[in-house]
Amino acid sequence: MAGTRAKLTGVDAPEGLRERKKAAARLALHEAAVRLALEHGLDHVTTEAIADAADLSRRTFSNYFASKEDAILDGDVVRLQDWLAALRDRPPSEPPWRALRASLNSLTDRWLDPDLARVTAMRALRQHPSLLARQSAIYGAFERDAAGVLLARSGAHAPDDRRAARVQAAAFLSGLRVAMNLWVEEPDVHHLMPTLDQVLDQLGRGFE
């Protein structure tokens, strides 16, 4: 048994180290892309500059991202993937809207940036046409994936069920966007989470 354990450890450790290195490189490129775009504007940022700022090769950048837009929005991709994983782990008997809320609540410490100034700056950056187009594709894919998870949890596959799952996923994402916009734009909205809860409560009345 001890020999088997040692053998497995010897095989798994390099794999784990490689994955951590990949994750670290991906994060470094994402953070460099965001930092440069906020400092200089997206039009003045190149993939070469991002790689240099992350102290990585330009080939490494190409291994992870197809464009500077993908590098900037990678935080969204990672968070959405985490959310899908959390949603899959919710009890099958839990109603869909509650499952969406509970899965998001389990990730709020990583999902929502408490820095209003940074969120405001990022929101302005995200209005760039090329980022808007990429965001639309990313969130559209997530909406479809989330609807698929809701359907898989319920075991229902009729056309009406597919439409209902898609509507709930889209409504939930819209609620997140509205709450974030209120937090950024309204001077009397000081805290994000109570605003998000209020928006989702209002939307959820149609689904619970």
Concise description?
By secondary structure, this protein is an all-alpha fold. The chain has helices at residues 2-40, 47-53, 58-64, 68-72, 74-88, 96-105, 108-111, 116-125, 129-154, 159-185, 192-204. The protein has 2 domains: 2-67, no CATH class; 73-204, Tetracycline Repressor, domain 2 (Orthogonal Bundle).
Features:
208 residues, mainly alpha, Tetracycline Repressor, domain 2, 2 domains, 11 helices, 78% helix
Question: Topology of this structure?
Answer:
Blueprint: H1 2-40, H2 47-53, H3 58-64, H4 68-72, H5 74-88, H6 96-105, H7 108-111, H8 116-125, H9 129-154, H10 159-185, H11 192-204
Helix pairs in contact: 1-2, 5-6, 5-9, 6-10, 9-10, 10-11
Characterise the protein shown here:
By secondary structure, the chain is mainly α. The longest helix has 39 residues, at 2-40. The radius of gyration is 20 Å and the shape is globular. The chain has 2 domains: 2-67, no CATH class; 73-204, Tetracycline Repressor, domain 2 (Orthogonal Bundle). The protein contains 11 helices and no strands. InterPro entries: DNA-bd_HTH_TetR-type_CS (IPR023772), Homeodomain-like_sf (IPR009057), HTH-type_TetR-like_transc_reg (IPR050109), HTH_TetR (IPR001647), MftR_C (IPR041347). This is TetR family transcriptional regulator. Residues 46-65 bind DNA.
Give the domain tally.
2
Q: Quote the CATH topology of the largest domain.
A: Tetracycline Repressor, domain 2
Rounded to an integer in angstroms, the radius of gyration calculated over CA atoms is 20 Å
Number of strand segments:
0
What is the oligomeric state here?
single chain
Stretches with pLDDT under 50, minimum 5 residues: 1-12
Order of helices and strands: HHHHHHHHHHH
Name of the CATH class of the largest domain:
Mainly Alpha
Structural class estimated from helices and strands: mainly alpha
Full CATH superfamily name of the largest domain: Tetracycline Repressor, domain 2
User: Mean pLDDT score, rounded?
Assistant: 86
- The helix content, as a percent range, equals over 70%
Query: Largest beta sheet, briefly?
Result: none
Compute the number of helices.
Answer: 11
- Specify the overall morphology: globular
Straight-line N-to-C gap: 52 Å
- The CATH architecture designation of the largest domain is Orthogonal Bundle
